[in-house]
TrEMBL record:
<dbReference type="Pfam" id="PF00717">
    <property type="entry name" value="Peptidase_S24"/>
</dbReference>
<dbReference type="GO" id="GO:0003677">
    <property type="term" value="F:DNA binding"/>
</dbReference>
<dbReference type="InterPro" id="IPR001387">
    <property type="entry name" value="Cro/C1-type_HTH"/>
</dbReference>
<dbReference type="InterPro" id="IPR015927">
    <property type="entry name" value="Peptidase_S24_S26A/B/C"/>
</dbReference>
<dbReference type="InterPro" id="IPR036286">
    <property type="entry name" value="LexA/Signal_pep-like_sf"/>
</dbReference>
<protein>
    <submittedName>
        <fullName>Peptidase S24</fullName>
    </submittedName>
</protein>
<feature type="domain" description="HTH cro/C1-type">
    <location>
        <begin position="14"/>
        <end position="69"/>
    </location>
</feature>
<dbReference type="InterPro" id="IPR010982">
    <property type="entry name" value="Lambda_DNA-bd_dom_sf"/>
</dbReference>
Length: 220
């Protein structure tokens, strides 16, 4: 059977991304992002080919483009201009508060880094009216894309989270029924109880729709 050079070198790109992020070992990266050590090591040494869904997770953690990591398409790093950060998805199109990635906005859309933000910042664009009272249709929601576990100071606040079902959500973070799990309260819609979180991030800025339209830099 003819070897697939893209698949064969996928694990090498994963190792390159991990080293570029500053992690000397696969175990150190797995521990930092809450991944199973054996699973990650198998993905990086080529014993187990990882999916595009997993590539998106790894790419987000290491700050590279998932298309490059998965099939060597395009440059390794996102094309961002100085002082700008990517608009990575849209949120609020339904009451569940699910973030839809790479949907509804042109690839490469950028927004200025918010006051106090860093080069780890990312933005979400609000679509629809299910987040009324937090952010209106067309607003920008900024967060620091650090991929770190939730902290006590996030409790009671609307934050960006990823749950173990691969969904990224914008929810109010509340204590769950026991340690290690959290309730996620929607702006509109039911509360999700006892969710397991992979990471959580404070919202650092919300830009109203009128101003958001003025500051977004389109892909073209």
């Amino acid at each position: 059977m003819t070897a697939d050079p893209i698949t064969d070198h996928r694990f090498q790109r994963l190792r390159e991304a991990r080293l570029a992020k500053g992690f000397d070992t696969a175990a150190a990266a797995a521990d930092a992002f809450g991944w199973n050590r054996n699973t990650y090591a198998s993905n990086e040494n080529g014993n187990a080919v990882f999916s595009y869904r997993r590539a998106k997770e790894y790419a987000g953690a290491f700050g590279v483009r998932p298309e490059w990591l998965y099939d060597a398409a395009g440059p390794m790093l996102p094309a961002t201009a100085a002082g700008f950060v990517p608009i990575v998805g849209r949120v609020g199109a339904n009451p569940d508060g699910v973030v839809l990635f790479a949907t509804g906005q042109e690839a490469g859309d950028l927004a200025p880094i918010p006051p106090g933000g860093t080069d780890k910042a990312a933005a979400l664009r609000v679509v629809g009216h299910s987040m009324r009272g937090v952010a209106d249709d067309g607003a920008l929601i900024y967060f620091e894309d650090q991929r770190t576990p939730p902290t006590p100071d996030m409790l009671g606040h609307v934050v960006v989270v990823e749950v173990d079902t691969d969904e990224v959500l914008v929810k109010r973070l509340l204590r769950g029924s026991r340690g290690g799990v959290f309730d996620l309260e929607s702006v509109a819609g039911p509360t999700r109880h006892d969710a397991h979180l992979r990471w959580a991030a404070h919202i650092t800025a919300i830009i109203p729709p009128y101003q958001a339209r003025r500051i977004i830099r389109g892909a073209g």
